[in-house]
Write a structure and sequence with these properties.
Elements: E1 6-10, E2 16-19, E3 25-28, H1 42-47, E4 52-54, H2 60-63, H3 66-73, E5 76-80, H4 84-89, E6 97-100, E7 105-108, E8 111-117, E9 123-126, E10 129-132, E11 137-142, E12 148-151, H5 161-168, E13 172-176, H6 185-195, E14 199-203, H7 215-222, E15 228-229, E16 237-240
Parallel strand pairs: 3-4, 4-5, 5-6, 12-13, 13-14, 14-15
Antiparallel strand pairs: 1-2, 1-16, 2-3, 7-8, 8-11, 9-10, 11-12
Length: 242
């Protein structure tokens, strides 16, 4: 019997929407307003219903629309514990946010999200100065039917990615490839080999000219490795199964 797939939709930059086999809708890092790659027709769809929102870190290009969408949908929001005071000041009800930390797991309506490290930074600019918003993170998403996706968040390559590959055997990994603020195609290819997932979905590229890495460059860097690059256009979806 075929396994019901997980649907992953890229909404431009670092914003992704997951639909679980049992219909749970989980949005990661909502940046809609001011995102030149966000497909505007998706705004109403998102506002009509979400079950959960995950946050990888506090940079504007990952949280700009977080409070607005959370208020409109009532979706539970989860992220690193240190984000709580700032998110509550942005208008997210305290009882709507679940703060946890690296190594911990929360249940998002049958989908388990385990927080893992990322190598990046996390801050908001207040009065012209950066304000620390907790460590950046990624997530291991384990779905109701056993499918697993490693959503790395904004990061460079680092050796612990091999651990998460060995520990969770993800069916896919979502990797940034744009370069400059995250890893580019060369590092992303190395990360893909460390993780060992059979397919990778690129993100965080093409939003601005400075994010110059491309899926074709990632394929070239992977060479003969048996790893499929599932390149999406903003608004496109991929179904992940075994």
């Amino acid at each position: 019997m075929a396994m019901t797939p997980v649907t992953i939709t890229w909404l431009g930059h670092g914003t992704f929407l997951y639909r679980s086999p049992e219909g749970q809708r989980i949005l990661v890092d909502p940046w809609l307003s001011g995102n030149p790659k966000f497909p505007e027709e998706w705004r109403t769809r998102l506002e009509q219903g979400l079950d959960a929102i995950l946050v990888t870190h506090g940079h504007f290009d990952h949280v700009t629309d977080l409070a607005d969408i959370a208020q409109k949908t009532g979706a539970k929001v989860a992220g690193i514990f240190d984000l709580a005071p700032w998110l509550i000041k942005q208008g997210i009800p305290e009882d709507q946010f679940t703060g946890f930390n690296k190594g911990g797991t929360v249940d998002l309506g049958g989908v388990r999200a385990t927080m893992v490290p990322a190598q990046h930074s996390s801050s908001a600019t207040v009065d012209g100065l950066p304000v620390y918003l907790g460590d950046p993170v990624g997530y291991i998403l384990r779905f109701e039917n056993g499918l697993c996706v490693y959503h790395t968040g904004d990061t460079c390559v680092f050796g612990d990615m091999r651990i998460y590959g060995e520990l969770y055997s993800p069916d896919a990994a979502v990797l940034p490839i744009g370069d400059h603020f995250t890893m580019g195609p060369q590092q992303a290819a190395y990360a893909a080999r460390l993780i060992g997932a059979p397919r990778v979905i690129p993100g965080h590229f093409g939003t601005f000219p400075i994010l110059r890495g491309t899926p074709d460059e990632l394929r070239s860097e992977l060479g003969s490795a048996s790893i499929e690059v599932v390149a999406l256009e903003p608004g496109e979806s991929a179904e992940i199964s075994r």
